[in-house]
Amino acid sequence: xxxxxxxxxxxxxxxxxxxxxxxxxxxxxxxxxxxxxxxxxxxxxxxxxxxxxxxxxxxxxxxxxxxxxxxxxxxxxxxxxxxxxxxxxxxxxxxxxxxxxxxxxxxxxxxxxxxxxxxxxxxxxxxxxxxxxxxxxxxxxxxxxxxxxxxxxxxxxxxxxxxxxxxxxxxxxxxxxxxxxxxxxxxxxxxxxxxxxxxxxxxxxxxxxxxxxxxxxxxxxxxxxxxxxxxxxxxxxxxxxxxxxxxxxxxxxxxxxxxxxxxxxxxxxxxxxxxxxxxxxxxxxxxxxxxxxxxxxxxxxxxxxxxxx
Length: 309
Prior knowledge:
The protein is mostly helical. It is 73% helix and 0% strand.
C-alpha cells in the first residue's frame, strides 16, 4: 500500500464513522475489506491525495447507496420510495440542502462531500456532474421497472443502458475533477472521442458482469450480460461467459483501434487527447486489477475462467 493510498483509506474510514454511514466495527471492516481506497489510488494515479480523499468518499457513498437500492429492487412495492430517495439525492446536489438531510446519514454524508467537492470545481462541471448522476439513477430505474414488470432485458437495450446502470458514465464524466483531465466540449463531441468514452464505460461494465456473476447468481442475475446471453441465445452458463468475454474484448480492441486514429489536431490538443485516453485506460485497467486482486465485493467462484483483456 502506498502512502497516498493509506492516507485515503484512513480518511474515508474516519469519514464513514463521522457521518454515521457505518456504526459498528463489523460494518467498517465490511467496507474496508472492499478496498475502495485501492480502487481510487490505482484508477487515478496522477491526482493529488486531497482530491482523491474527496473522490473516495463520494465513490464509497455511491457503493453504499447501490447496496441499499439493490435491496429495494427486490421489494417490488417500493418504487415510490426509490423515486423519493433519488429526488432527495438530486436536491442535495442542486441546492446543497434537503428536508431529508437531518434524518438520513446518507444525505448528511452527501451534503458534506458535495460541499467539499464544490469548493474545488467549476459551476459548469457541477452541472455536468449532476446530470451524470441523474443518468446513473435513470439506469437504475430502468432495471427496477423491468424487475417490477417481470421483464427480462434484451441484449441491445442492456448494452445501451449498462453504462448508466453501472455508473461508468459517472466515472468518465468526472475526470476533470478525479484525474485533472479536461477536454473542451468541441473536442469531446468529436464522434471518435465520444466512441472512446462509450467503449471505456462498456468495457468497465462488461468486465464487472464477469467479475460479479458469482455474487449475482445468488440473488438476481437478470441484469448481467452472461444471464442475458443464456436467456436470449440458449447458451449454457460457461458458453455465455466465454461469449461475454468475446464481446468485452472486442470493445477493448476497438478502443485501441480508435485511440490510434484520433491524434489529428494541433500539438496542444493532441496532448490533451492523449491525457484523456490515458485516463480512460487507467479506469479500465484499475477496475480489472481492483475487482480481481483486491476487493471482497466480487467473489470469484462461478463458471468458466476466461481471459479479459
